[in-house]
Design goal:
The structure is a single chain. By secondary structure, this protein is α/β, with parallel strands linked by helices. The chain has a single domain, classed as Diaminopimelate Epimerase, Chain A, domain 1. Helix content is about 50%, strand content about 15%. The protein has a four-stranded mixed β-sheet, with helices on both faces. Helix 3 runs parallel beside helix 8 and helix 7 runs antiparallel to helix 8. It comes from Rhodoferax saidenbachensis. Pfam families: TPM_phosphatase. This is Membrane protein.
Length: about 170
């Protein structure tokens, strides 16, 4: 019980995501996602949360399980699953835990092993520890783009309709 209360306080007093990623950084990340999606048929979304909602924090689950549950919930809320080719990817950050989750839709999971995403997560974790949020997310977008381009490249003259917003979601 004490662990859950400590976790609750940690998440309630975390600085907000907008302070870590100011408006100009968000615009650059959005532009990077937009440029990426000109190369493949996938969709990339970024979600950055300062902390988990209270409804998660009071659950008895481990922090790792809660973070995965929240990333999956955001995957659904942001409709990353709702693309024509089922090839959306969510990059999820929880600042209070300095945690990263990468959630790929079923079309991507069929061709990309989960282990391949570990390098992306590790690279982003290294950047976050150094306080380089924008640079780390930019590198992650590029890495996800490379994977999506490898498996879902656009053919010459083919157009990728933008199915999801490119702007990072902050909360």
């Amino acid at each position: 019980m004490i662990e859950r209360l400590q976790r609750l306080f940690k998440h309630r007093w975390m600085e907000d995501a907008g302070r870590v990623l100011p408006a100009d950084a968000l615009q650059r990340l959005q532009a990077r996602v937009t440029a990426s999606e000109q190369q493949h048929s996938g969709e990339i979304r970024i979600c950055v949360e300062a902390g988990l909602p209270n409804s998660y924090l009071l659950r008895p689950d481990t922090t790792a399980a809660l973070l995965r549950q929240r990333a999956l919930a955001q995957f659904g809320r942001l409709r990353v699953w709702d693309t024509e080719h089922n090839n959306g990817v969510l990059i999820y950050l929880c600042l209070a835990e300095r945690a990263i989750e990468l959630v790929a839709d079923r079309g991507v999971d069929r061709v990309v092993p989960a282990e391949q995403w570990q390098g992306v997560v590790q690279q982003l974790a290294t950047a976050l520890r150094a306080g380089q949020y924008e640079q780390g997310l930019a590198q992650s977008i590029d890495a996800v783009c490379a994977v999506l381009t490898q498996h879902f490249a656009l053919l010459p003259g083919q157009h990728n309709p933008n199915e999801l917003p490119d702007a990072p979601a902050l909360s």
